[in-house]
Amino acid sequence: MKIAIVGATGEVGRMMIKCLEEFELPVSSLELFASRRSVGNQLFFNDRAHTVQLLDNAAMLRHQDYVLFSAGAGVARSYAPLAAEASELVIDNSSAFRRDENIPLVVPEVNGDLLSGYSGIVANPNCSTIQIIIPLAVLDKLYGLKKVIVSTYQSVSGSGNSGIQILNMQRRGSSEKGIYPEIIDLNVIPQIGGFLDDGYSQEEDKMHQEARKILRHEEIEISCTCVRVPVIYGHSASVYAEFEREIELSDAEFALAAAESSVFYPNTYMTPLELGSSNDTHSSRLRYGVDRKSLCFWNVGHNVRIGAAANAVRILKRHASDTGRL
Ligand SMILES: NC(=O)c1ccc[n+]([C@@H]2O[C@H](COP(=O)([O-])OP(=O)(O)OC[C@H]3O[C@@H](n4cnc5c(N)ncnc54)[C@H](OP(=O)(O)O)[C@@H]3O)[C@@H](O)[C@H]2O)c1
């Protein structure tokens, strides 16, 4: 398979290279693109050096089987449509196309069927959405999801490499706020992105819209509070959900443990520091909410892996096997 990665030097781009290796995909050619300042740098795929190239129109018009974009919404808007003309599938990690009703927003474990017979641009959802939508889809199938209230605890790598740099500088004594509205070291910030007229932040709004689109369930009531915390990798979420039907806790636990890319802990819980290189979403502390038709649980996932790169590579893998490339 011929693959290109745009934004290859970033947190997500570098993890995409790692996921392509780990998933042992048959890559016959890999082209890497980033901004002007990274041109000429070398990145390694399966121990072979690949030189970072300049992103331009001509490069995007070269045929690839798959082009993975992870360079922000502006770059995606400028170049992904060109790449989609020349190549089979373009998988974009940014928010540029997620709300476009003609573009599938895919978590393969939940709505991978949308990839069947599709070519063009596919949107990869927001990181926090991916890790909670997998358990919520499992529970929705069993009990009929009506309402979700989520509070997130999101790591600084969710802001890309600059988030990690700012936290590390502040830990060494800097009082520069950098990309954040407040100091993040030894603090929590209840703002991710700008605020909208309804009082929600952009990150919260993304979760509201994207969850409904992925579950194909416009009536679900959803309210999120997204909080940045001084953790390097791994987003956490406290989830409360209401359902149409009564729940048997042991059945819900069994379904969460059996679902693809989902790990369930009956007697303990996961913290972000323990995630390591897991590409799964980890749920624990499952309990009734206010009655037998509601649940609370704790969820943790690696934002750069399942929240971004691993989901993108799973989209690629699913499409490649549907189209006989695997
Ligand atoms: N981090 C996460 O947890 C996460 C999760 C889900 C989705 N995302 C999304 O994924 C995208 C990348 O995030 P990230 O965390 O990897 O950010 P990052 O670490 O800041 O990396 C950004 C990448 O984009 C490249 N880039 C920036 N401007 C460019 C331009 N004009 N032309 C070509 N390349 C350009 C950068 O190249 P240089 O190195 O040359 O600057 C770098 O490779 C964003 O849209 C983000 O919202 C991130």
In words, what does this structure look like?
Strands 3-4-2-1-5-6-7 form a 7-stranded mixed beta sheet, sandwiched between helices. Strands 9-8-10-13-12-11 form a 6-stranded mixed beta sheet. The protein has 326 residues and is an alpha/beta fold. The chain has 2 domains: 2-125 and 308-322, NAD(P)-binding Rossmann-like Domain (Rossmann fold); 128-302, Dihydrodipicolinate Reductase, domain 2 (2-Layer Sandwich). It has helices at 11-22, 57-60, 72-86, 108-111, 127-143, 161-171, 202-215, 249-258, 305-322, and strands spanning 2-6, 29-34, 42-45, 48-54, 66-69, 89-92, 120-123, 145-154, 221-228, 235-243, 262-265, 281-288, 294-301. The chain is globular, with a radius of gyration of 20 Å. The mean pLDDT is 98. The structure holds NADP nicotinamide-adenine-dinucleotide phosphate.
Give a short synopsis of this structure.
This protein is an alpha/beta fold and about 325 residues long. The chain folds into two domains: about 1-125 and about 310-320, 3-Layer(aba) Sandwich (Rossmann fold); about 130-300, Dihydrodipicolinate Reductase, domain 2 (2-Layer Sandwich).
End-to-end Cα distance, whole Å, is 9 Å
Order of the strands making up the biggest sheet: 3-4-2-1-5-6-7
Named CATH topology of the largest domain: Dihydrodipicolinate Reductase, domain 2
Tally of contiguous helical segments:
9
What is the count of distinct domains? Answer: 2
Low-pLDDT segments, ≥5 res: none
Overall form: globular
**Structural class assignment:** alpha/beta
Classify the oligomer.
Answer: single chain
The CATH class label of the largest domain is: Alpha Beta
CATH architecture of the largest domain: 2-Layer Sandwich
Which compounds are bound in this model? NADP nicotinamide-adenine-dinucleotide phosphate
Q: In sequence order, what are the helices and strands, one letter per element?
A: EHEEEHEHEHEHEHHEEHEEEH
Strand content: 15-25%
> How would you sum up the major sheet?
7 strands, mixed
Care to count the β-strands? Answer: 13
CATH superfamily of the largest domain: Dihydrodipicolinate Reductase, domain 2
Mean pLDDT, nearest integer? 98
